Amino acid sequence: MVYLLSIFLFSCWAYLVDKNKIYKLNLIIPIMLIGIIFSFNRQNQDYQAYLEIFKIPESYAEIGYISLVSIVKELGGSHETIVFFLGVLVAITFYRMAILTKLPALLIILYMIFPMPIDVVQIRNTFMVLFFINSLIDFYRSNIIRSSIFIFLCICFHSVGVLYLIFWTSLFFRNKKYFSYVIKIGIVLSFIIVPFAIKALLIYFNTRTLSAYISNDIKWHSIFIWGVPFLFDLFILKLMINKYLYDAERKKLARILYTILMVITLFMPFLLYVDEINRLFRNAVVIKYFLACIVLPSVPKLNRMIFISYLIAFAVIIGIYYVVQINYDYIIFSFPE
Question: Which residues cross the membrane (predicted)?
Answer without folding.
Answer: 24-41, 82-114, 120-137, 149-172, 178-202, 223-241, 253-273, 280-299, 305-324
